Amino acid sequence: MTKKGLLLVVSGPSGVGKGTICKEYLSKYDDCALSVSATTRAPREGEVDGVSYFFLSHDEFRKKIDAGGFLEHAVFCDNYYGTPKDAVMEKLDEGKNVILEIEVQGALQVRSHYPEAVFVFVIPPSMEELENRLRGRGTETDDVIAKRLQRAKAEFKYIDKYNYTLTNDTVENAVCVLHSIIEAEKCVMARNYEYLKEEFIK
Amino acid sequence: MTKKGLLLVVSGPSGVGKGTICKEYLSKYDDCALSVSATTRAPREGEVDGVSYFFLSHDEFRKKIDAGGFLEHAVFCDNYYGTPKDAVMEKLDEGKNVILEIEVQGALQVRSHYPEAVFVFVIPPSMEELENRLRGRGTETDDVIAKRLQRAKAEFKYIDKYNYTLTNDTVENAVCVLHSIIEAEKCVMARNYEYLKEEFIK
Predict the structure, then answer these.
(1) Is the separation of the CB atoms in B16 and B126 below 8 Å?
(2) Span B116-132, average pLDDT
(3) Which residue in A has a C-alpha nearest to residue B188's C-alpha?
(4) Distance from CA of A178 to the nearest CA of B (A)
(5) Are strands A70-76 and A79-84 parallel, antiparallel or unpaired?
(6) Structural element, H or E, at residue A91
(7) A123 and B196: CB-CB below 8 Å?
(8) For residues B121 and A201, is the Cβ–Cβ distance under 8 A?
(9) Could you tell me which residues come within 8 angstroms of residue A15 by beta carbon, excluding any fewer than 6 positions away?
(10) pLDDT computed for residue A1 by the predictor
(11) Chain B from 92 to 151: CB within 8 A of any A CB
């Protein structure tokens, strides 16, 4: 019996560092694969279909939406982006863990399709620190930063839909704690009960 | 605001190695204290009241039972043994984590008094391996071993009352996974929500 892999949804407000954490995690540990998104935007030089993205036409994408083929999807700059359900499920069925790094609204969509996933909300050490980080980029106007903070505050209202909170104090710590979450989730009784029943209770 | 500590209940059938895991954990990590039991048996040489055990008279013990002063208790060889609630709660309130290594029946009692605890059921890699370990001690008759295995099988029926299963393949691995469980539990949303609401949602 192959035990199903874990779908790990790593989410949180813009600027909190969720992308960096996932990238570092995948370079440090080999127990997870990154989910490959689908998009309708044209491939850029060097991008490989099925590796960088699954490249679909608008028509293909919309048909896939209608067929319930996405765990989540969104429109950004006139193009669709989404997480194809079949590609993720295939890996999970093979016993592989999959990490999905995603915005809060997308995570909520995933939750409605696949509640067995593990939902992790990345938080900054404080609201002040998030503002510092957004300012630290040095590329945004005060107005843009204020809007991003406002959006972050709105997103924080959904934290109770998540299983775990992960503080991004340092990337190293956050990666280490994320590993603990994965290790612990593998031991969660509900995920092991059928196997244990077979081995120890029959 | 001091965050409450975790009460970690490590349980499982006799011979599975739960005592060794807890001892090794406490020698490797300093983030948990071991719960001190109370007993009515006489102190042995070198045992210190409040450190080895809380030594109580039969009368004191029974009064404490009636007052709901134990998280669990049992009788063994005409003496009472139990886990005093106040001593554990005091540590948890100070933000310290407490490990309680305990038989399955005791763990179920703790669960009814303090369901917020984290319940970990230690399992052997297989039923065959548990039998090997019991035989390996070389001190028990076939009859005693058969009875212990029978009891283990009865205890396995309660695994669904536990949050996690912990395989004792090697003590080193088990200690490492136990640490992951503690780290992950510290991040569980329900345990952090009040604090997060205050910092990020107000």
Answers:
(1) no
(2) 94
(3) A164
(4) 8
(5) antiparallel
(6) helix A85-93
(7) yes
(8) no
(9) A124, A130, A133, A134, A137, A148, A152
(10) 57
(11) 121, 123, 126-127
Q: What ipTM was reported for this prediction? A: 0.91
Query: Any idea how long chain A is?
Result: 202
Contacts of B126 in chain A (CB under 8 A): 199
What is the rounded distance in angstroms from the CA atom of residue A20 to the CA atom of residue A136? 16
Put simply, the answer to whether B157 touches A185 (Cβ < 8 Å) is no
- Residue B75 burial (C-beta neighbours within 10 Å; 0-12, 13-18, 19+): exposed
Q: For B29-84, what is each residue's pLDDT tens digit?
A: 999 999 999 999 999 999 999 988 999 999 999 999 999 999 999 998 899 999 99
Query: Which chain B residues have a beta carbon less than 8 Å from that of A169?
Result: none
- Residue A87 makes CB contacts below 8 A (sequence gap 6+) with A35, A36, A54
Q: Note the pTM of the prediction, 2 decimals.
A: 0.92
Cβ–Cβ of A200/B121 closer than 8 Å?
no
Distance between CA atoms of residues B111 and B119, nearest Å: 8
- Contact (CB, 8 A) for A71 and A109: yes
Mutation target vs B (from A180, A195, A197; most B CBs, 10 A cutoff): A180
